[in-house]
Specification:
By secondary structure, this protein is mainly alpha-helical. The chain is built from four helices and no strands. The protein is elongated and about 40 Å long. The two termini are about 15 Å apart.
């Protein structure tokens, strides 16, 4: 069984991958909201969160809290689109938000 720490890193990695895929798939397509901008910001935040987790940074909880908020926003934005890649991105963002929220509370 994964620890909260390991779960958070894994969720951030998967979210980063699914946001990248969503961003690529949305290239050149019209968007009615902040997708794919949210994917860019989510990827950057997940990457920063992973870096702080791995470094055992004194700011890990703050980064995890911020990451959870940005992932929730991205899930909301991508979840409004009918595309399969957006649905997958929204799902990964939701899982990541939950894992990061747990880590922020530890």
């Amino acid at each position: 069984m994964l620890t909260t720490y390991e779960e958070c890193i894994k969720a951030c990695q998967e979210c980063l991958i699914d946001c990248k895929n969503c961003l690529i798939q949305m290239a050149g397509k019209e968007s009615m909201n902040d997708c794919p901008t949210c994917c860019i910001l989510c990827m950057e935040t997940c990457n920063a969160c992973i870096s702080h987790l791995l470094a055992n940074s004194p700011f890990t909880k703050e980064y995890c809290q911020l990451c959870s908020e940005i992932c929730e926003w991205c899930a909301e934005q991508c979840g409004q689109h009918p595309h399969e890649h957006c649905a997958k991105c929204a799902e990964s963002c939701t899982i990541c938000a939950e894992a990061c929220r747990k880590m922020a509370k530890n």
